[in-house]
Amino acid sequence: MRFMFVGDSMTIGRAGDYTWRYRMWQHLGAAFGGPFEIVGPRTALYDDDGAGAPAADPPAADLPAAVAPAAGPPDCQGYAGPDFPGEARRHLAGWGEGWQHMAPLIGPAAGAAGADVLLVSLGLIDLGFYTRADQTAENVRRFVAAAREARPAVRMVLLPVIPNVRARHDAPFAAEVARFNELLAKAVADLTTDASPILLAARPASYEIDHDTYDGTHPNASGEHRIAGEFAAVLHQAWGIGGPYRPAAQP
User: Fold this and answer.
1) % of the chain beyond a pLDDT of 90
2) Which CATH architecture has domain 2-239?
3) Domain extents for the chain?
């Protein structure tokens, strides 16, 4: 089974992070009970070394140009997990990229990689910088259609926008987040099919921005475990994939 992580800055992570992708890879390794792959066209973390641009892999020869990340260093080696192998670092995530950016990329990426399950965490960057809730929800639907065109039987798990510091202090923004999460739930209900089911993960019930992030938005080690735990829980409960989430003995 091939899993693809799709997301924004909370998913790509920055140099020095473990990332929730690492936590999920550890979980699958312990609980999946069979062979699996992590797939995607990128492997790098965001490297904010003052250049103001993310470190990225050069385009892979077998991927459409539209999917390839911007030119940059060959691979950021800044993952905190030293046991995280290069093939497991694969993803389709980008700092500052949201549903509107991923909708045109997901078809070529999922098709080229043969993705079976998409684990998607998007929405905050859209609402914060690009689109309002209704427009963002339309981009979710574009994303789903493009993924299915490339992989008709693909499964998807979508995470709602989780707590963040801007929503704490900006009431109109908090209202947009709440509205989008309602529309996301409706999109999942409308679009799920027997051939290509979609699940809505839960917002982590105990996620606290002062405890689970390092800046009010991006997850620290505790937050990474909580996000991975929600994906693991819905995969296990709905589809029997893996088992209950048990964090590995890591920071």
Assistant:
1) 80
2) 3-Layer(aba) Sandwich (3.40)
3) 2-239
